[in-house]
Amino acid sequence: MMTASRWEWLDFDEAEAKQVRDFLSQAVDGEGVDPLRLGASVRDRMADRLFPGTSTQYTRLRYVFLIPAILRRKGATVGNLSQSQMVLNVALDRANAEEKGVIGRRTPGRDFVHLYWSALRTWQFLTPLTKDDRDITVANGLAALQARASMDEEDNRLVEQRVQWEPRVVMLADQFWDSQKASGWPSIRCTRAEVDFIIEQWLALPGKPPLAAIAARLQEGRRLSQAIYPWEAAVGSFADARVELDRAKAVSLICWSAQLAFNFALLKKARRLEDRNPETTWRQRGQDLESTQRRIDNLFAAWAKAFAEERSTLTPWAVPSHWDPLGSDMSRNFLASTAKKLIDGHTNLKSEGWSTWVREREMVNPAPKLSNDHHLATWSGTPEMAQRWDFRWGASVRRFVEDAENPRG
Q: pTM of this prediction?
Protein backbone atom coordinates (compact mmCIF):
# COMPACT_ATOMS: atom_id res chain seq x y z
CA MET A 1 0.00 0.00 0.00
CA MET A 2 1.33 3.42 -0.93
CA THR A 3 1.29 6.02 1.81
CA ALA A 4 0.95 9.75 1.37
CA SER A 5 4.07 11.81 1.83
CA ARG A 6 4.62 15.42 2.73
CA TRP A 7 7.42 17.94 2.57
CA GLU A 8 8.70 19.76 5.61
CA TRP A 9 11.64 22.12 6.08
CA LEU A 10 12.97 24.49 8.68
CA ASP A 11 12.36 28.03 7.50
CA PHE A 12 15.62 29.55 8.70
CA ASP A 13 16.99 30.88 5.42
CA GLU A 14 14.77 33.10 3.26
CA ALA A 15 16.47 32.19 -0.03
CA GLU A 16 16.37 28.44 0.65
CA ALA A 17 12.76 28.55 1.83
CA LYS A 18 11.76 30.46 -1.30
CA GLN A 19 13.56 27.90 -3.46
CA VAL A 20 11.65 25.04 -1.82
CA ARG A 21 8.33 26.87 -2.18
CA ASP A 22 9.04 27.43 -5.87
CA PHE A 23 9.85 23.75 -6.30
CA LEU A 24 6.63 22.63 -4.61
CA SER A 25 4.42 25.11 -6.43
CA GLN A 26 4.88 23.87 -10.01
CA ALA A 27 1.38 23.67 -11.45
CA VAL A 28 2.04 21.23 -14.29
CA ASP A 29 2.33 17.49 -13.54
CA GLY A 30 5.99 16.54 -13.34
CA GLU A 31 7.28 20.09 -13.73
CA GLY A 32 8.31 20.17 -10.07
CA VAL A 33 10.53 17.11 -10.66
CA ASP A 34 14.14 17.91 -11.55
CA PRO A 35 15.64 14.68 -12.95
CA LEU A 36 18.80 16.26 -14.36
CA ARG A 37 19.32 18.55 -11.36
CA LEU A 38 19.37 21.77 -13.35
CA GLY A 39 16.39 23.55 -11.81
CA ALA A 40 17.84 25.27 -8.75
CA SER A 41 21.32 26.10 -10.03
CA VAL A 42 20.41 27.10 -13.59
CA ARG A 43 16.70 27.87 -14.01
CA ASP A 44 16.15 29.57 -10.65
CA ARG A 45 19.40 31.53 -10.75
CA MET A 46 18.51 32.83 -14.20
CA ALA A 47 14.98 33.69 -13.02
CA ASP A 48 16.46 35.67 -10.12
CA ARG A 49 18.69 37.58 -12.56
CA LEU A 50 15.74 38.43 -14.80
CA PHE A 51 13.05 39.03 -12.20
CA PRO A 52 14.53 39.55 -8.72
CA GLY A 53 12.06 39.28 -5.87
CA THR A 54 9.64 37.01 -7.72
CA SER A 55 8.43 33.47 -7.10
CA THR A 56 6.29 30.95 -8.98
CA GLN A 57 3.90 31.06 -6.04
CA TYR A 58 3.09 34.75 -6.48
CA THR A 59 -0.26 35.39 -8.14
CA ARG A 60 -1.33 39.04 -7.90
CA LEU A 61 0.71 42.19 -7.48
CA ARG A 62 -1.51 43.79 -4.87
CA TYR A 63 -0.52 41.31 -2.19
CA VAL A 64 2.74 43.22 -1.72
CA PHE A 65 0.63 46.20 -0.65
CA LEU A 66 -1.83 44.17 1.42
CA ILE A 67 1.06 43.06 3.64
CA PRO A 68 1.97 46.52 5.00
CA ALA A 69 -1.74 47.31 5.18
CA ILE A 70 -2.47 44.36 7.44
CA LEU A 71 0.66 45.01 9.53
CA ARG A 72 -0.34 48.67 9.85
CA ARG A 73 -3.86 47.97 11.07
CA LYS A 74 -4.46 49.20 14.61
CA GLY A 75 -3.83 46.50 17.17
CA ALA A 76 -1.97 44.15 14.80
CA THR A 77 0.34 41.71 16.57
CA VAL A 78 2.30 38.64 15.57
CA GLY A 79 -0.18 36.62 17.60
CA ASN A 80 -3.30 37.78 15.74
CA LEU A 81 -1.71 37.99 12.29
CA SER A 82 -3.06 34.61 11.11
CA GLN A 83 -6.62 35.49 12.06
CA SER A 84 -6.36 38.92 10.43
CA GLN A 85 -5.13 37.35 7.19
CA MET A 86 -7.97 34.82 7.20
CA VAL A 87 -10.55 37.58 7.57
CA LEU A 88 -8.99 39.57 4.72
CA ASN A 89 -8.66 36.45 2.53
CA VAL A 90 -12.38 35.72 2.90
CA ALA A 91 -13.26 39.35 2.14
CA LEU A 92 -10.99 39.35 -0.95
CA ASP A 93 -12.62 36.18 -2.23
CA ARG A 94 -16.14 37.56 -1.84
CA ALA A 95 -15.28 40.91 -3.39
CA ASN A 96 -13.34 39.51 -6.36
CA ALA A 97 -15.35 36.49 -7.45
CA GLU A 98 -14.50 36.97 -11.14
CA GLU A 99 -10.80 37.57 -10.57
CA LYS A 100 -8.07 34.94 -10.81
CA GLY A 101 -5.16 34.56 -8.42
CA VAL A 102 -6.97 35.17 -5.12
CA ILE A 103 -4.76 32.87 -3.06
CA GLY A 104 -7.13 32.42 -0.12
CA ARG A 105 -9.99 31.16 -2.28
CA ARG A 106 -9.37 27.49 -1.66
CA THR A 107 -7.50 27.94 1.62
CA PRO A 108 -8.76 30.95 3.59
CA GLY A 109 -5.98 30.53 6.12
CA ARG A 110 -3.22 30.98 3.52
CA ASP A 111 -0.38 33.09 4.93
CA PHE A 112 0.36 35.66 2.21
CA VAL A 113 2.47 37.84 4.53
CA HIS A 114 5.33 35.37 4.82
CA LEU A 115 4.76 34.09 1.28
CA TYR A 116 5.38 37.50 -0.34
CA TRP A 117 7.85 38.83 2.22
CA SER A 118 10.86 38.16 -0.03
CA ALA A 119 9.41 40.53 -2.63
CA LEU A 120 9.10 43.35 -0.10
CA ARG A 121 12.71 42.82 0.96
CA THR A 122 14.06 42.75 -2.58
CA TRP A 123 11.98 45.69 -3.80
CA GLN A 124 12.94 47.71 -0.70
CA PHE A 125 9.55 48.43 0.73
CA LEU A 126 11.51 48.53 3.98
CA THR A 127 15.20 48.68 4.86
CA PRO A 128 17.21 47.82 8.00
CA LEU A 129 18.23 50.67 10.28
CA THR A 130 20.91 48.31 11.61
CA LYS A 131 22.43 47.80 8.10
CA ASP A 132 21.86 44.07 8.66
CA ASP A 133 19.41 42.53 6.16
CA ARG A 134 18.68 39.74 8.64
CA ASP A 135 16.66 42.28 10.60
CA ILE A 136 14.12 42.61 7.77
CA THR A 137 11.68 40.20 9.39
CA VAL A 138 7.90 40.22 9.58
CA ALA A 139 8.07 40.79 13.34
CA ASN A 140 10.35 43.83 12.97
CA GLY A 141 8.30 45.16 10.06
CA LEU A 142 5.11 44.90 12.09
CA ALA A 143 6.76 46.56 15.10
CA ALA A 144 7.93 49.47 12.94
CA LEU A 145 4.49 50.08 11.45
CA GLN A 146 2.79 49.87 14.82
CA ALA A 147 5.43 52.08 16.45
CA ARG A 148 4.88 54.97 14.04
CA ALA A 149 1.99 56.03 16.20
CA SER A 150 4.18 55.79 19.32
CA MET A 151 5.93 59.18 19.20
CA ASP A 152 6.47 61.78 21.87
CA GLU A 153 5.58 65.45 21.49
CA GLU A 154 8.91 66.08 19.72
CA ASP A 155 8.33 63.26 17.22
CA ASN A 156 10.88 60.96 18.82
CA ARG A 157 10.19 57.25 18.69
CA LEU A 158 9.10 55.73 21.99
CA VAL A 159 9.96 52.22 20.76
CA GLU A 160 13.30 51.21 19.24
CA GLN A 161 12.95 50.12 15.60
CA ARG A 162 15.23 47.86 13.63
CA VAL A 163 13.73 48.58 10.21
CA GLN A 164 12.13 51.53 8.51
CA TRP A 165 9.40 51.49 5.86
CA GLU A 166 9.47 53.64 2.76
CA PRO A 167 7.14 56.54 3.71
CA ARG A 168 4.96 56.04 0.62
CA VAL A 169 4.32 52.44 1.65
CA VAL A 170 2.93 53.65 4.97
CA MET A 171 0.79 56.21 3.16
CA LEU A 172 -0.56 53.55 0.79
CA ALA A 173 -1.31 51.25 3.73
CA ASP A 174 -3.34 54.00 5.39
CA GLN A 175 -5.12 54.71 2.11
CA PHE A 176 -6.13 51.05 1.90
CA TRP A 177 -7.98 51.23 5.20
CA ASP A 178 -9.52 54.60 4.31
CA SER A 179 -10.90 53.07 1.12
CA GLN A 180 -12.19 50.11 3.10
CA LYS A 181 -14.22 52.42 5.28
CA ALA A 182 -15.71 54.00 2.18
CA SER A 183 -16.47 50.89 0.11
CA GLY A 184 -16.30 47.98 2.52
CA TRP A 185 -14.95 45.65 -0.19
CA PRO A 186 -11.21 45.09 -0.82
CA SER A 187 -10.09 44.83 -4.44
CA ILE A 188 -7.34 42.50 -5.66
CA ARG A 189 -6.41 45.09 -8.28
CA CYS A 190 -3.79 47.74 -7.55
CA THR A 191 -4.55 51.43 -7.45
CA ARG A 192 -2.78 53.85 -9.77
CA ALA A 193 -0.71 55.13 -6.83
CA GLU A 194 0.40 51.59 -5.97
CA VAL A 195 1.40 50.87 -9.57
CA ASP A 196 3.36 54.12 -9.79
CA PHE A 197 5.24 53.17 -6.63
CA ILE A 198 6.07 49.62 -7.70
CA ILE A 199 7.32 50.81 -11.07
CA GLU A 200 9.71 53.18 -9.30
CA GLN A 201 10.95 50.35 -7.09
CA TRP A 202 11.55 48.08 -10.08
CA LEU A 203 13.38 50.88 -11.90
CA ALA A 204 15.71 51.22 -8.90
CA LEU A 205 16.71 47.54 -8.83
CA PRO A 206 20.51 47.09 -8.77
CA GLY A 207 22.07 46.20 -12.10
CA LYS A 208 18.99 47.27 -14.10
CA PRO A 209 17.69 43.73 -14.74
CA PRO A 210 14.97 43.03 -17.32
CA LEU A 211 12.34 43.71 -14.64
CA ALA A 212 13.62 47.31 -14.50
CA ALA A 213 13.44 47.57 -18.28
CA ILE A 214 9.86 46.28 -18.21
CA ALA A 215 9.05 48.90 -15.58
CA ALA A 216 10.38 51.64 -17.87
CA ARG A 217 8.18 50.44 -20.71
CA LEU A 218 5.16 50.28 -18.40
CA GLN A 219 5.90 53.84 -17.35
CA GLU A 220 5.70 54.80 -21.04
CA GLY A 221 2.28 53.16 -21.29
CA ARG A 222 3.46 50.11 -23.25
CA ARG A 223 1.63 46.80 -22.87
CA LEU A 224 3.91 43.79 -22.49
CA SER A 225 1.74 41.12 -20.88
CA GLN A 226 0.81 39.53 -24.21
CA ALA A 227 4.32 38.11 -24.62
CA ILE A 228 4.38 34.31 -24.29
CA TYR A 229 8.05 34.28 -23.26
CA PRO A 230 9.98 37.05 -21.50
CA TRP A 231 12.43 37.49 -24.39
CA GLU A 232 9.46 38.47 -26.58
CA ALA A 233 8.80 41.54 -24.41
CA ALA A 234 10.12 44.77 -25.93
CA VAL A 235 12.58 46.34 -23.48
CA GLY A 236 13.45 49.42 -25.51
CA SER A 237 16.86 50.99 -25.01
CA PHE A 238 17.88 48.78 -22.08
CA ALA A 239 20.76 47.04 -23.85
CA ASP A 240 21.91 45.04 -20.81
CA ALA A 241 18.38 43.75 -20.27
CA ARG A 242 18.18 42.69 -23.91
CA VAL A 243 21.47 40.80 -23.56
CA GLU A 244 20.22 39.07 -20.40
CA LEU A 245 16.96 38.06 -22.06
CA ASP A 246 18.84 36.69 -25.07
CA ARG A 247 21.01 34.68 -22.69
CA ALA A 248 17.89 33.33 -21.00
CA LYS A 249 16.48 32.30 -24.37
CA ALA A 250 19.59 30.29 -25.27
CA VAL A 251 19.79 28.71 -21.81
CA SER A 252 16.15 27.74 -22.08
CA LEU A 253 16.60 26.07 -25.48
CA ILE A 254 19.70 24.07 -24.50
CA CYS A 255 18.20 22.84 -21.23
CA TRP A 256 14.92 22.04 -22.99
CA SER A 257 16.86 19.83 -25.42
CA ALA A 258 18.38 17.76 -22.61
CA GLN A 259 15.09 17.53 -20.76
CA LEU A 260 13.16 16.34 -23.81
CA ALA A 261 15.87 13.78 -24.53
CA PHE A 262 15.48 12.57 -20.95
CA ASN A 263 11.71 12.22 -21.34
CA PHE A 264 12.09 10.22 -24.55
CA ALA A 265 14.57 7.92 -22.80
CA LEU A 266 12.24 7.66 -19.80
CA LEU A 267 9.30 6.61 -21.96
CA LYS A 268 11.37 4.02 -23.81
CA LYS A 269 12.66 2.56 -20.55
CA ALA A 270 9.17 2.56 -18.99
CA ARG A 271 7.67 0.62 -21.91
CA ARG A 272 10.29 -2.10 -21.47
CA LEU A 273 9.61 -2.28 -17.75
CA GLU A 274 5.87 -2.37 -18.32
CA ASP A 275 6.26 -5.61 -20.29
CA ARG A 276 8.01 -7.27 -17.34
CA ASN A 277 6.44 -5.62 -14.30
CA PRO A 278 2.78 -4.56 -14.16
CA GLU A 279 3.20 -3.12 -10.64
CA THR A 280 4.17 0.40 -11.55
CA THR A 281 2.92 3.68 -10.19
CA TRP A 282 1.71 4.92 -13.55
CA ARG A 283 -0.44 1.81 -14.02
CA GLN A 284 -1.85 2.07 -10.52
CA ARG A 285 -2.85 5.65 -11.32
CA GLY A 286 -4.29 4.72 -14.69
CA GLN A 287 -1.79 6.85 -16.58
CA ASP A 288 -1.64 5.93 -20.27
CA LEU A 289 1.90 6.05 -21.67
CA GLU A 290 0.48 6.61 -25.15
CA SER A 291 -1.00 9.89 -23.92
CA THR A 292 2.34 10.85 -22.44
CA GLN A 293 4.04 9.96 -25.72
CA ARG A 294 1.73 12.31 -27.62
CA ARG A 295 2.46 15.13 -25.20
CA ILE A 296 6.21 14.66 -25.56
CA ASP A 297 5.93 14.40 -29.35
CA ASN A 298 4.01 17.68 -29.46
CA LEU A 299 6.64 19.35 -27.32
CA PHE A 300 9.36 17.93 -29.57
CA ALA A 301 7.65 19.46 -32.60
CA ALA A 302 7.64 22.84 -30.85
CA TRP A 303 11.29 22.35 -29.90
CA ALA A 304 12.26 21.54 -33.52
CA LYS A 305 10.68 24.76 -34.72
CA ALA A 306 12.41 26.81 -32.03
CA PHE A 307 15.75 25.11 -32.67
CA ALA A 308 15.58 25.90 -36.39
CA GLU A 309 15.07 29.59 -35.55
CA GLU A 310 17.59 29.84 -32.69
CA ARG A 311 20.40 27.45 -33.62
CA SER A 312 22.72 30.25 -34.71
CA THR A 313 22.73 31.70 -31.18
CA LEU A 314 24.16 28.60 -29.50
CA THR A 315 27.85 28.75 -30.49
CA PRO A 316 29.15 30.66 -27.42
CA TRP A 317 27.35 28.23 -25.13
CA ALA A 318 29.60 25.33 -26.12
CA VAL A 319 32.24 26.85 -23.81
CA PRO A 320 31.70 25.95 -20.11
CA SER A 321 32.85 29.36 -18.82
CA HIS A 322 30.08 31.06 -20.82
CA TRP A 323 27.55 29.50 -18.40
CA ASP A 324 29.00 31.31 -15.40
CA PRO A 325 27.41 32.07 -12.88
CA LEU A 326 24.78 29.45 -13.69
CA GLY A 327 25.16 25.89 -12.44
CA SER A 328 28.03 24.01 -10.83
CA ASP A 329 31.23 23.14 -12.68
CA MET A 330 29.78 19.72 -13.51
CA SER A 331 26.53 21.23 -14.78
CA ARG A 332 28.36 23.78 -16.93
CA ASN A 333 30.42 21.06 -18.55
CA PHE A 334 27.30 18.99 -19.21
CA LEU A 335 25.37 21.90 -20.70
CA ALA A 336 28.30 23.16 -22.78
CA SER A 337 28.69 19.66 -24.24
CA THR A 338 24.93 19.54 -24.82
CA ALA A 339 25.18 22.78 -26.79
CA LYS A 340 28.09 21.32 -28.79
CA LYS A 341 26.03 18.25 -29.69
CA LEU A 342 23.24 20.49 -30.98
CA ILE A 343 25.63 22.71 -32.94
CA ASP A 344 27.16 19.61 -34.53
CA GLY A 345 23.76 18.57 -35.82
CA HIS A 346 22.77 15.89 -33.33
CA THR A 347 19.11 16.88 -33.22
CA ASN A 348 17.39 13.49 -32.95
CA LEU A 349 16.61 13.69 -29.26
CA LYS A 350 15.07 10.19 -29.42
CA SER A 351 18.37 8.56 -30.39
CA GLU A 352 20.39 6.10 -28.29
CA GLY A 353 23.21 8.63 -28.21
CA TRP A 354 21.01 11.16 -26.45
CA SER A 355 19.58 8.46 -24.16
CA THR A 356 23.10 7.54 -23.04
CA TRP A 357 23.99 11.21 -22.60
CA VAL A 358 21.10 12.04 -20.29
CA ARG A 359 21.34 8.71 -18.44
CA GLU A 360 24.91 9.54 -17.46
CA ARG A 361 23.84 13.01 -16.34
CA GLU A 362 20.93 11.63 -14.32
CA MET A 363 23.40 9.78 -12.08
CA VAL A 364 23.75 13.05 -10.12
CA ASN A 365 20.17 12.36 -9.00
CA PRO A 366 20.00 10.19 -5.85
CA ALA A 367 17.03 8.30 -7.36
CA PRO A 368 17.89 7.84 -11.06
CA LYS A 369 15.13 6.20 -13.10
CA LEU A 370 17.02 5.45 -16.30
CA SER A 371 19.54 3.21 -14.55
CA ASN A 372 17.37 1.77 -11.76
CA ASP A 373 14.13 -0.13 -12.39
CA HIS A 374 13.03 0.24 -8.78
CA HIS A 375 13.06 4.04 -9.08
CA LEU A 376 11.59 3.84 -12.57
CA ALA A 377 8.58 1.90 -11.24
CA THR A 378 7.71 4.89 -9.02
CA TRP A 379 7.36 7.24 -12.01
CA SER A 380 3.90 8.81 -12.28
CA GLY A 381 3.84 8.45 -16.04
CA THR A 382 3.64 12.19 -16.70
CA PRO A 383 6.42 14.20 -18.40
CA GLU A 384 9.17 15.41 -16.09
CA MET A 385 10.26 19.02 -16.61
CA ALA A 386 9.50 18.77 -20.32
CA GLN A 387 8.15 22.29 -20.84
CA ARG A 388 10.40 25.07 -22.08
CA TRP A 389 11.54 27.25 -19.21
CA ASP A 390 10.24 30.81 -19.13
CA PHE A 391 11.87 31.73 -15.80
CA ARG A 392 8.65 32.53 -13.85
CA TRP A 393 7.22 34.68 -16.63
CA GLY A 394 4.08 32.63 -17.16
CA ALA A 395 3.70 31.56 -13.55
CA SER A 396 3.72 35.02 -11.97
CA VAL A 397 5.66 37.85 -13.65
CA ARG A 398 3.30 38.24 -16.62
CA ARG A 399 0.36 38.48 -14.20
CA PHE A 400 2.24 41.20 -12.28
CA VAL A 401 2.84 43.09 -15.52
CA GLU A 402 -0.81 42.77 -16.45
CA ASP A 403 -1.84 44.12 -13.04
CA ALA A 404 0.51 47.07 -13.55
CA GLU A 405 -1.02 47.69 -16.99
CA ASN A 406 -4.55 47.80 -15.59
CA PRO A 407 -4.64 49.80 -12.35
CA ARG A 408 -7.92 50.53 -10.63
CA GLY A 409 -9.02 54.12 -10.52
A: 0.88
